[in-house]
Design a protein that fits this description.
two-stranded antiparallel ribbon, alpha/beta, Lysozyme-like, 13% strand
């Protein structure tokens, strides 16, 4: 199955490490950009990641109407100590101080749906379940989704990041991710079934 990852508009971040072999991705790390909910926030932060002032990077930046890739999937981002070598880092427009209601406003719903599509594709691509890990599960090496704040709590040294914040709607977001995972699984199963039919019958494809 093909995915949109690595095919979104690419604004290469200054800080990324190229891997010559396949990178062992096991976690998806959710961040917020500490930037306003506006329609060009993903593009603006992606350009910031290109600057000398940027001390980090992420694989993708997501706002209400776009996804911008800053680090290619198999490259290593500078997103959070402890989960850079094996993490996919996703930046969302907004602030860690936002309440759940603010995350779920009209802008946030559009952005979270777009992000859920992206994260679901990463889940499929790397066989990652659409669940949030506990800190203990993160340490144990399990696959899943975490917040940047969890990496800060588990791995040292870290700068005490708390994004995406206490108000982030994890239950809502993970449910949307799972819905999209199911959609992609059904599409993949339908494609496999079609391939099997054509293989067994020898019928030409349209």
């Amino acid at each position: 199955m093909s995915f949109e990852t690595d095919s979104w508009p690419y604004v290469p971040a200054r800080l990324q490490v190229k891997w010559d072999k396949k990178r062992p991705v096991r976690v998806i790390v959710m961040h917020d950009m500490e930037a306003p909910e506006k329609d060009k926030t993903a593009e603006n932060v992606a350009r910031y990641f290109q600057s000398a002032a940027a001390g980090g990077s992420a694989h993708i930046c997501v706002d209400s109407d776009s996804i911008v890739q800053c680090v290619l999937d198999n490259n290593q981002a500078a997103g959070a100590n402890g989960v850079n070598k094996d993490g996919i880092h996703v930046e969302l427009a907004g602030y860690a101080e936002q309440t759940e209601a603010e995350w779920l406003d009209a802008y946030g719903l559009l952005m979270l749906e777009r992000a859920a599509h992206a994260v679901a594709q990463y889940c499929m691509k790397y066989d990652i379940p659409a669940i949030q890990l506990t800190n203990e599960e993160l340490v144990s090496g399990k696959k899943g989704i975490i917040g940047h704040y969890q990496a800060s709590a588990v791995y040292k040294p870290n700068k005490g990041h708390n994004d995406p914040g206490n108000g982030f709607p994890w239950k809502f977001f993970l449910e949307r991710v799972q819905v999209q995972v199911n959609v992609y699984r059904n599409l993949a199963a339908a494609k496999d079934a079609e391939e099997l039919i054509f293989t067994q019958t020898g019928l030409p494809k349209d």
